[in-house]
Amino acid sequence: MATPNGEVHIPLPRRVGQVETPEPASDATILLPRSPTEEEAERLQRRAAWQRRIAWGAPALLTLVLCAIGLGGPGLWADELATWGITTVSWSELWRQLDGTDATIGPYYVLIRIWTVVFGDSDVSLRLPSVLAMAGAAAVVGRIGTRLGSHQIGLLAGLTFAILPITTRFGQEARPYALATLAAAVATLLLLRMLERFTLGIALMYGAAVAALGLMHLVALLLLAAHGLAVLLTKPKLLWRWTPSAFAGLIPLLPIILIGRRQQGTQIGWIPFTDLHQIEAYGLEFFGGSLIGGAVIALGVAAISRERGAVVAITLGVVPVGLLMALGAVTHIWQQRYVLYTIVGWTVLVGLLLARRGLLAAISAMVALAVLALPGHVEVRKSSFRYQDTKAVVALIERDFRPGDGIVYGLKDRGPGVLNRDVVAHYLPAERRPTDLLMDRPMRTDGWMVSSEHQDVAARLGETQRIWVLRLGEYGDPLDDLDGAKKDVLKERYDVTQSWWTTGYTVALLTRKDPV
């Protein structure tokens, strides 16, 4: 290229496609310090998350510990022996049994049958599902309280639930009531979510919780009356959405409901009608003691307000109890344990009240409740609180047992005398059992839960020198009202050598009279 002054410049060739980029600096990233406001917000978030975890975790852990203390102490009482007995039969026999009796809690029996296949049928193993269910219910109560406003409400409600003696009592029982309490707590938590914001997902989960509740215990479905009233009082427009959600949970239960109606007479026909005595007993015994019960009811009543959480809690605590008592006046149905789940409502009310009173008042109240609960915790671990002391029965027989001894059972004793054979079968090894002299067909055979006995009592007794008699209930004369021909034959041939009363049982040892 020539310039005007005659100079010539030759340009260098270009490099096509190559882009020169500056080398990155070794420390090019600059970290800007977070503002104090952001750090404080993050710290508060972490703290709130831990508080929420503690609100449900601490009650669950405390419940677990309290239910584990003395878990294997008292022996299985009659209803628990029915649970054990169903685990001893084959699956085909189990279905036949449920067709004849106890279909309403058949799903629980199926669950416990699977459980014992894995974990065995010891007293502790049979009761462990209830322990876990009660711990889960305590956690859900904590979540309910948190949902209602703060972790303080959840923690106080959950701890109140944990320290109630009745929580431990049924957390240590091989029956479905603890699992029904867990399902009721979950359904109540979902109801609160539904009241805040209705979605199809929440509705489906609520229906599933209702189904689980009914599968564990049909009578517990009185919960729906409490929930329906709570919806009507707090958010009436939701009623047309809540109702299909509730009925959706009832659909899987229809077969059980139909079969249960057919079995009603044999299952609960023994329950007395509700009277003033039962109403009084509710106040004195339901929470595990009159002192702790009175305190919880007083605190709960003081917490009543028009707030959504208080309305849900009080309807849950009161409505199922009132309805079942009213039904119990005209039919055989009132049992306190059938409405065990209502303690969820009362404990949430206590949490709501104490959370408003400040830290010092809340701590003082919880300490006072714990002190009032102590006598109840001692009582519920006694065999007398479980209606029958089965371990005392077998201890008496095992102590004085001799080879060649026989045994006769009272099948029609007051209460479930048909289960008397389970006491010996569960606790005494075969080589230490008296011979069952009258049995023809074993229990839980061919769809019959009750064993059949030979009618010729005298022939079956033969020349047996010593006979044990086991009766459910306390009898001054151990042969009094003994069913069939047993009483007459035994009085004619045997003398009552010794008799004992244990909690719920009469045990007697008879020896053969000397021939004249």
UniProtKB/TrEMBL annotation:
Main location: membrane
Domain of life assignment: Bacteria
Glycosyltransferase RgtA/B/C/D-like domain segment(s): 111-251
TM region(s), chain numbering: 54-77, 124-141, 153-171, 177-195, 207-233, 239-260, 281-304, 310-331, 338-355, 361-378
Subcellular locations according to the entry: Cell membrane
Alphabetical list of InterPro entries matching this protein: LipidA_mod_glycosyltrf_83 (IPR050297), RgtA/B/C-like (IPR038731)
Alphabetical UniProt keywords: Cell membrane, Glycosyltransferase, Membrane, Transferase, Transmembrane, Transmembrane helix
Coiled-coil regions listed: none
Ranges for region Disordered: 1-29
Membrane topology type: Multi-pass membrane protein
PANTHER family recorded: MANNOSYLTRANSFERASE YKCB-RELATED, MEMBRANE PROTEIN
Name recorded for this polypeptide: Glycosyltransferase RgtA/B/C/D-like domain-containing protein
